[in-house]
Amino acid sequence: MCPPIVADSPRLRAARPPASVASRATLRRAWRPALVLVALCVAGPAEAGGWDVNAAFGPTKQVPVDVREGTWMSVSVHPDGKRVAFDLLGDLYEVPLTGGEAKPLTRGAAWDMQPTYSPDGRWLAFTSDRGGGDNIWILPTDTPVEQSDKRARAVTRERFRLLNSPAWSGDSRFVVARKHFTSRRSLGAGELWLYHRTGGKGVQMTKRPNDQKDVGEPALSPDGRWLYYSRDKTPGKVFQYNKDPNPGIFAIFRLDRHSGRTERFLGGPGGAIRPTPSPDGKRLAYIRRVRGKTVLFARTLASGEEVRLADDLDRDLQETWSVHGVYPALSWTPQSRSLVVWAGGKLWELGLTGARRPIPFHVKTTRRVHRALRRPVAVAPKDVQVRAVRWPRVSPDGARVVFEALGRLWLRGVADTGAPRPLTGDTRARELTPAWSRDGKHIAYASWDDRDLGAIRVTRGQGGRPGRAVTRARGHYRAPTWSPDGRALVYEKLRGGWLRPATWSNDPGLYVVAARGGPARRLTRTGHDPHFGATPDRVYFHARNAKAKRHELRSVGLSDLRERVHATSKLGTELWLSPNGQWLAFREGYEAW
């Protein structure tokens, strides 16, 4: 039996680490089933300015663009009140507030978006991937488009926690932006950071409440006291799609930079997003969902009185993922009497008194498009080059390996160079998670058929015929494992639903059944990856302790059903005891230990 091992974060500490590469190889050969690891090397985006995204890589062509409408356009009115900047198809443009021909401010393959003028009118901040990943850049407003690449300067130089949604301080010295954080899911959350316009590491202004709920759309009040932002305030820590907007998903919060206190400022039915303070500091424009409509309001801060400015905006993103904002940025005119907003493909000036005026624009230009990389693909080739295999399991004598590819189990000699042969020849059911008996004479595996559902089956170690079912009832099964004496099989029973039928899903957990077949008996309600150590009286498995926020290697007795914890890890995703009960293998952070 493996002695108890308790791990410190983040590494699970083994009793004796392998002393050399040779000892690791020896240990790796001894483990059955073997741990197979694919190491991923993910290269982050280059530091801003380190990679010229605008350079041509391979063949390109020029595509004409001639449009008078656009999609999801952020806008910013210049402090002189005569012009408005907007983003379109990854470039920035400027058009007179009265409308007319749009003048390009940036161009190239880089994706530029979210322009915002500084209050003194000298700078244009924007989000761009021109340095290899989204960062905040600034450009002098008097820059000809031909010099924009040379005169644009990176304010932030993040390589992993990328930034967007810039907003200026009232003195035009600082930019606040949203920094994106991810954890276990690609969905992430945001923090707000403040940077001097000349660059630097920045100062953290808010802390993300969790790892999956959006925080973004920052805006500073003209006097610099208040930092407004929107936040997904739904219960729990896990992001979910298709939440109900009627009781409210997002709310507007504000940080008092004098006291350091944060308060929920606006929310309630329909939520509240895209806070936009007026230049005179008297009002806050924001957006709320009113039943099926996305509606723009202007709120007087002193009294709380509100004016409904438009109820025909495009649908906001409250129910879904909104890293770059829940609605495109709006902008007040300098006198704080009207707002410029994108809706329905066009730009509009909306007055506080109810007046509405379109701002027509015309963009006529070309885009350099890189030719797509394509290669001919045979639709139904006679032979297939398999590029991914799952659950490779080496026989106890080290001579043969069984693995899954394309929904079938395959068998071949470890030293062979020829094509593998099908394990069973069964072409109807899918075959998964194979496991050798310790004498190498039999292989257990899980099968799946959309009509008959799943079963645990056993076939000869030499293969050649479909396996016989040892489970009596249909169900959702995986990961069988043999007891050391070969008399019993332990396996997982899962719930159905989602991609599989929900039928035959009662009472999930780990079960034991005689290797010859018969009635099954549940050992535990939770856990996965069951396996045995040196003795047949206890089965080991991996379990997640949600309360303690850690992974555990547990065991349960086949007769007394008493559970024990043998090892813990905060980040370990697989924990396996060696067949002789003396070693513990685990996977953590794409590494095997």
Topology (elements, then pairings):
Layout: H1 21-30, E1 60-67, E2 75-77, E3 83-88, E4 91-96, E5 100-101, E6 103-104, E7 112-117, E8 123-128, E9 135-140, H2 148-151, E10 153-154, E11 163-168, E12 174-182, E13 188-196, E14 199-204, E15 215-220, E16 226-232, E17 250-256, E18 262-266, E19 273-277, E20 283-290, E21 293-300, E22 306-313, E23 331-332, E24 338-343, E25 346-351, E26 356-359, E27 361-370, E28 390-394, E29 400-405, E30 408-413, E31 421-422, E32 430-436, E33 442-449, E34 453-460, E35 468-469, E36 477-482, E37 488-493, E38 509-514, E39 521-524, E40 528-532, E41 538-545, E42 550-557, E43 563-569, E44 574-577, E45 584-588, E46 591-592
Parallel strand pairs: 5-27
Antiparallel strand pairs: 1-27, 2-3, 3-4, 4-6, 7-8, 8-9, 9-10, 11-12, 12-13, 13-14, 15-16, 16-17, 17-18, 19-20, 20-21, 21-22, 23-24, 24-25, 25-26, 28-29, 29-30, 30-31, 32-33, 33-34, 34-35, 36-37, 37-38, 38-39, 40-41, 41-42, 42-43, 44-45, 45-46
